[in-house]
Write a structure and sequence with these properties.
With 287 residues, the chain is mostly helical. 75% of the residues lie in helices and 3% in strands. The protein is built from 11 helices and 2 strands; from the N terminus they run H-H-H-H-E-E-H-H-H-H-H-H-H. The longest helix is centred in the first third of the chain and has 30 residues.
Amino acid sequence: MVALQLFVNGIVTGCALGVVAISFSLIYSTLRIFHVAHAGIYTMGGYVAYSLVMHGVPDILALLLAMVAAAMAGAAIQVLLYQRLAARKGTHLVVLIASLGLLAVIQNLLAAIYSANILQFPGAWSGEIVNLGDGIRLTKVQFLTVIVCILAYIGMMLFAHRTLLGKRIRAVASNPFLAEITRLRPQAVYVYVIAIASAVVCLPGVLVPYDLGLQPYGGVTPLLTATIAMIAGGVGSITGAFLLSVAISVVQNLSLLVMPGEWSIGVTFFVFVIFMLFRPTGLFAAR
């Protein structure tokens, strides 16, 4: 019974991490940069929604407005930081350091404004329990997280393969030089990509803190796990990133049956490092 509950909890966590992974994968596979400040956008979205809810804005509207704010922040980061570094021929290491610095700025600003304490969203409904039978129980927020994140995965798949902008993004990711020649305007596409990814990452960025609480420095671990899932699933593969996120989370949760919680993350990452030695391109490597 405990194992089944841990398995279900792993699916919930994995779905949330899966959305982080596919949004990060969208950025990396297109821009080829490690946008670690994505963790700051993840956290910022939760705080924006929290502020709106505290001022009486309905939960759904607060989530949508937080997504808009995150999209604008992501676009501003691309235009004001990454685009300028690219114009000055900044190396990948310079971009990574700049992104790390921006992450630190976002985290510390949030801590200065809201304090470093854990904040809880108001509202009694978030703590209500959904009984799935056989002793399996989830909160309404956890149940909603699974549904929303699966819908986000399906939406991203349809967007990438069925829309003109999605196909344009894939073309730029495949060959930026050829995309420039054919007037697909890669620089504009990069802005769209980071804006879309920043809006999408707001979904778990709001729903997870709704269940567990907000903390300024809480976005780094989800991004690290999502990065591992993205690489193990295959860079550029939305399905691979999502499925591997779920797999990692399930393994982490089930490992609690045999080891303390502080060991589970390390052991899980060790297993996937070994996996990457034998399958460095990932399970679902994109062509």
